[in-house]
Amino acid sequence: MAVDADKRDRILNAAMKEFTKGYKNSSTDAIVREAGISKGLLFHYFGTKKDLFLFLHEYALKMILGEFFNLINLEQRDILERWRQVILLKIDLVHKYPAIFAFITAVYLGENGDVAGDIDKRKAAFSEAVYPKLFSDVDISLLRDDIDPQKAIDVIVFTMEGYANREVSPEKTLDDYEPEYERFLKEVDAYITLLRKCLYK
Predict the structure, then answer these.
(1) Which domain holds residue 107?
(2) Is residue 24 one of the residues assigned to a domain?
(3) Is residue 161 in some structural domain?
(4) 142 belongs to a structural domain
(5) Average pLDDT in the 21-25 region?
(6) pLDDT higher than 60, residue 79
(7) Number of domains present in the structure of the chain
(8) Per residue in 123-178, pLDDT tens?
């Protein structure tokens, strides 16, 4: 896809903004208006609305994951400390790239219409690709000897993911979450303390 850099950035920024409404509720007319281009040029560069949406989703994930794995310290082998590090990094990246996170949140919580199947497949692929890397080489010797290490790791993942999913709402914007970060971190630390007491030596 040969596209002028300025036009490409305008299209991607406009599309990201529009798609925060959800795939079904977004309009290519609004995207071309915001980007200052013709609809013909949009489709020439990106194909259909679906093609643009999926391209933007992949672009956003690659950008965030690339920076995330550049920053995370995988030498920290305590899985609970590593998970806390993940949460703090995510908050930092949300502040740095609010538009990208608003888009990604809308993708995972919104009505995705005929791209829902593609998004579900990508969610599964994302977990398969990221989680093994994120939780590789953790120090299982920290865990109690009388429990299965993999089940202990599963409990940690299910607990922390479950809490994060409970806190996310399609009605909230990133600005709504801003005043909640301190409470969120306190509750995360409380769960980490409880998990450490239950699962560690």
Answers:
(1) 62-199
(2) no
(3) yes
(4) yes
(5) 87
(6) yes
(7) 1
(8) 888 888 888 888 889 999 999 999 999 999 999 999 998 998 888 876 777 778 88
